[in-house]
Design a protein that fits this description.
Helices cover 51% and strands 14% of the residues. It is built from 17 helices and 8 strands. The chain has an 8-stranded parallel β-sheet with strand order 1-2-3-4-5-6-7-8. Bound molecules: adenine and zinc ion. Zinc ion binds next to β1.
């Protein structure tokens, strides 16, 4: 009904999540449980102490803690539990489909076999579909602070498991590690039939966004905030309807924006960019997808129509088959019509 609050409208809206690092969904409670189960020491006495440490002034600050947290993940069951915990939380937010990143190098560099990671995550994804009705895809993300050679070795390790991946991504420390460093790896991944995503313009300049487009030939851009500094780039992104997976609470916690009131999403929408809202690393940034919609809507004054557009964009920008996209978008329209 028209009297429904915007928060209730957001809660009931079917959504896809397209920018979620599964390691970034490791809640402190599960971190403690896995530390105990695996006999791994963590440098915190309590869940409260972990949460208190989540105070970041930039991307690298966060990454240092995020990679340390991942040390508790060792077995197939750990990765399955991690993934299923995310999907349960996402389902509560009416996320119907999620395309999730994982960072294989974070695990293989600690001696955890590639197949343990993949089989565990896939088990969690299969359970999510069976028990929660949430569909998903897995995106293998290369750590850009490591070498091109290491990325090629990771792609090689992934080759027996290609059926489990919808695409590749590029994440970790952006400044100093431009997309050009991975042009050949992305070309090889594209030839294997994988979709191509890259983080660009989170902390890095508009030139990195251009490289992601021109040298990596990406299908989807993660973040993209700093594109807004470059008029020609804005026009190009609008004309191509490139999907941007924007993450408001991440941007706030990593000081990409000073205040949510300064967030670029309203300007992106005004300029006709194909924007989606996502949670990035929700265990570290204080909110899952609905909280990202709600807090942004509150801070910048999004309308119900804009919120609906963001949800429609999330399915359009997904790597689902066209018929599945259409079915999900019909559910978005049905919710909008019912709530009108
Ligand atoms: N890894 C996990 N979250 C990330 C982010 N927001 N940017 C870069 N690398 C990441
Ligand atoms: Zn990210």
């Amino acid at each position: 009904s028209p009297s429904m609050s915007l928060d209730a409208y957001i809660a009931g809206l079917p959504k896809a999540e397209l920018h979620l690092h599964i390691e970034g969904s490791l809640e402190p409670e599960l971190m403690f449980e896995l530390a105990q189960r695996n006999g791994v020491a963590i440098p915190f006495d309590s869940v409260e102490a972990v949460r208190a440490a989540y105070d970041f002034s930039n991307l690298q600050d966060f990454l240092d803690i995020y990679y340390a947290g991942a040390n508790v993940l060792l077995t197939r069951r750990d990765f399955e539990d991690l993934a299923f915990a995310y999907f349960r939380r996402a389902a509560a937010d009416n996320v119907r489909h999620a395309e999730i990143f994982f960072d294989p190098q974070t695990h293989t560099d600690r001696g955890v076999p590639f197949e343990v990671v993949v089989e565990g995550l896939v088990a969690g994804m299969d359970r999510a579909k069976a028990e929660l009705g949430v569909t998903s895809g897995l995106i293998l993300s290369f750590l850009r602070h490591l070498s091109e050679e290491a990325a090629f070795a990771t792609l090689e390790a992934a080759t027996p498991y290609l059926d489990h991946f919808v695409g590749v991504g590029l994440d970790s420390s952006e400044v100093g590690h431009p997309p050009s460093k991975f042009a050949r790896v992305f070309a090889a991944a594209g030839e294997l039939g994988l979709k191509l995503c890259a983080h660009a313009g989170e902390e890095g300049p508009p030139a990195y966004v251009r490289e992601a487009l021109d040298l990596l030939h990406i299908d989807r851009m993660d973040h993209g905030n700093r594109s807004m500094e470059d008029e020609a780039l804005i026009q190009r992104l609008a004309a191509s309807q490139m999907t941007l997976t924007v993450c408001p609470l991440s941007n706030l916690k990593l000081c990409v924006v000073k205040d949510l009131k300064d967030h670029p999403v309203p300007e992106m929408l005004r300029r006709g960019l194909h924007v989606t809202l996502n949670s990035d690393d929700p265990a570290y940034f204080g909110g899952y997808v609905n909280e990202n919609y709600r807090q942004l809507a509150q801070a910048v004054g999004l309308t119900r129509e804009q919120v609906t557009l963001l949800a429609r964009n999330s399915f359009e920008g997904s790597f689902l088959a066209e018929a599945d996209k259409a079915a999900r978008i019909a559910e978005v329209e049905a919710w909008a019509a019912r709530s009108a």
